[in-house]
Write a structure and sequence with these properties.
By secondary structure, the chain is α+β, with helices and mostly antiparallel strands. It has five helices and eight strands; from the N terminus they run ααβββββαβββαα. It has a four-stranded antiparallel sheet with strand order 1-8-3-4, with no helix packed on it. It has a four-stranded mixed sheet with strand order 2-7-6-5, with no helix packed on it. Helix 1 (about 5-15) crosses helix 2 (about 20-35), helix 1 (about 5-15) crosses helix 4 and helix 4 (about 155-170) runs antiparallel to helix 5.
């Protein structure tokens, strides 16, 4: 699995530059991770079971977007119906009401259930999450890596290289190379999407619980 250090070195080699470019290359890698973070692929979705005891339950800091939520009722999984938090506000007319939840919304990085649960429940959620947070502008550990530098490596490498060419090196030759690499980046992303769609259609689930 490539590390941050090897990714920086590879891009430096592609650009035929020396180590004085490393800080700018690392910045471009971080920007590439931010650019792609909210796009759904096979390696950045996760299934997790959480315990809920009240109307609001905090979600993890790396949560981006939910796909579905299912309430565990005995041996049965009951799909919860997604609504907006505005709809829940308008529906909630009795502060004392509690029952088996039917609807849910995401509000301020919280899972909100309605009616508020009348007991402790387990909720199974499938969601998109941010795996790029282990790499930042201040990351110096050459062993640092994550799934973006494994399965998503080609996309991140190409996107970062294009950024350095266009915004740092500049010039007609740099722009021409950036244009060629952008086409390769688009092809690489299409392959990631194809694999993600295949996993979804086959019913397989990636990511740790």
């Amino acid at each position: 699995m490539p590390t941050l250090g090897t990714a920086v070195a590879a891009i430096r080699g592609d650009l035929n530059r020396d180590s004085t470019f490393d800080a700018r290359i690392q910045e471009a890698i971080v920007n590439a991770l931010r650019f792609y973070r909210a796009r759904r692929y096979g390696f950045n979705t996760k299934r997790k079971t959480i315990t809920v005891t009240g109307e609001f339950t905090s979600l993890t800091a790396n949560f981006i977007e939910i796909d579905y939520a299912k309430l565990e009722v005995g041996q049965r999984l009951k799909p919860l119906v997604e609504r907006t938090y505005t709809w829940l506000n308008e529906t909630k007319l009795d502060e004392s009401l509690s029952s088996e939840p039917v609807w849910y919304a995401i509000q301020e990085r919280n899972l909100r259930l309605y009616p508020p649960p009348d007991q402790t429940y387990s909720v199974q959620i499938h969601f998109l999450y941010d795996i790029g947070s282990t790499i930042s502008l201040s990351t110096s550990d050459s062993t640092t890596t994550n799934a973006w530098l494994d399965e998503g490596y080609e996309v991140i490498r190409l996107h970062a290289t294009v950024e350095v060419l266009e915004m740092y090196i500049d010039g007609p030759e740099a722009q021409a190379k950036a244009d060629r690499l952008r086409l390769r980046e688009m092809e690489a992303e299409r392959e990631l999407k194809r694999r993600a769609n295949r996993e979804q259609s086959s019913g397989s689930i990636r990511g740790k619980m």
